[in-house]
Hints:
Layout: E1 18-21, E2 24-27, H1 40-43, H2 46-50, H3 64-93, H4 97-121, H5 126-130, H6 145-154, H7 161-164, H8 170-181, H9 185-195, H10 203-215, H11 221-252, H12 264-269, H13 277-281
Antiparallel strand pairs: 1-2
Helix pairs in contact: 3-4, 3-6, 3-9, 4-11, 6-8, 9-11
Amino acid sequence: MTKEPSADSVVGCPVGASSDFGDETVTSHHFGEEGxxxxxxxxxxxxxxxxxxxxxxDPPAHDELLFITIHQVxxxxxKQLLHEVDAATEAMxxxxxxxxxxxxxxxxxxxxxxxxxxxxxxxxxxxxxxVFRELLSPASGFQSAQFRELEFASGAKDPTYxxxxxxxxxxxxxxxxxxxxxxxLWDGFVHAVAATGLPASSEDELRxxxxxxxxDRDGYGELWELSxxxxxxxEAAALWxxxxxxxxxxxxxxxxGTGGSTGAPYLRSRLGLHYFPLLWELRSFL
Length: 286
């Protein structure tokens, strides 16, 4: 008697594919629904994810779902950005500059999405926002621990925020405190400059070294490209802040923020923030 070949042993039939033998079709059990180990919904935890949009308005305000969804998506992207920034920092300390550049390209691409996402929020009119805005107080985007972590991880560390934040959990406070102590993207870049043998022990030395890098891209091409990737991240963050404040002014004018800030005036005061001011200053020396 001839033994029927199994799907995984069929020559030329990749795992997960099918092959005809007479009237029967041999199908791998590693893929498809037959194993029933995972489904699309269980892998993505869709039941938990799609039940996390809980409205405060009663009767439900139509645009509150949009408002919650937009901000939850932001937090998911912030989580991904922190994942990439941490890996890029580690790569620079480990001498893997090509990998750091790759990750920073992804960071800037994600930030482009964050900028475009504001246009979706702007489809909500000021009148429709006012229907539920008062219910949000004292919650505020100012309290986003992950957004502040991203600033700290990029190099813009400000310990006063730990005292100014309200409503943070103990875990969030610990994460922010750890970010203040941990190496940033900028620290990783300075390490990469020093690793090439260029002086980088002071700001003046570092500036001179960066001018040398910029003027000799044949000799320091990888460092130059890395500095440009950092600047892409910095510029994208600046564009997001500018787009964000314009949206806020369009929605609430000069009203105070729900968290107690001055609202748009506070956001405008942040427009001059740069993660890597020396890279911007460098242009004046070329």
